[in-house]
């Protein structure tokens, strides 16, 4: 059974974060500064997606965690629909990310008022 925020209610737990095999940054760290957000790609039901560049440490020909160009999805954490929990989409990407046709998530974490997935 799902809710309006795209999470399965059975999987929701207070304060729970989805770690999986991607890096989850602590809220205190300004990790988003590692990326330069460039332009908006689009908007979905739960958030907005931007294209950005890794500020350093990337490889122009790299893919995966060394890629220079990334997509960043921002979701407002305490919007009317999202009650401050990690987006259920994070769990889905943990399970499926990297499969053929499914983007791989490199980083995810809270950043101020937003949940951000790279
Ligand atoms: N990696 C990407 N490359 C290019 N465009 C993208 C990428 N990811 C998202 N977009 C664009 O951003 C839009 C919104 O993405 P989003 O993931 O929010 O879509 P959605 O699945 O429709 O929304 P939601 O998951 O919130 O219901 C997409 O429709 C697409 O146009």
TrEMBL record:
InterPro entries reported in the protein's UniProt record: Kinase-like_dom_sf, Protein_kinase_ATP_BS
Source domain of life: Eukaryota
Residue ranges, annotated region (Disordered): 1-23
Keywords: ATP-binding, Nucleotide-binding
Binding residues annotated for ATP, in chain numbering: 73
Classification via PROSITE patterns: PROTEIN_KINASE_ATP (PS00107)
GO terms for MF: ATP binding
Entry protein name: Protein kinase domain-containing protein
Native source organism of the sequence: Gossypium davidsonii
């Amino acid at each position: 059974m799902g809710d309006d925020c795209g999470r399965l209610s059975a999987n929701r737990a207070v304060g729970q974060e989805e770690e999986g095999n991607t890096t989850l940054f602590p809220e205190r760290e300004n990790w988003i500064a590692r990326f330069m957000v460039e332009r908006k790609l689009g908007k979905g039901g739960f958030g907005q997606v931007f294209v950005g560049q890794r500020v350093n440490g990337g490889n122009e020909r790299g893919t995966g965690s060394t890629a220079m160009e990334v997509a960043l999805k921002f979701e407002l954490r305490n919007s009317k629909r999202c009650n401050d929990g990690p987006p259920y989409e994070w769990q889905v990407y943990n399970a499926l990310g990297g499969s053929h046709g499914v983007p791989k998530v490199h980083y995810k974490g809270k950043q101020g008022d937003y949940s951000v997935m790279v």
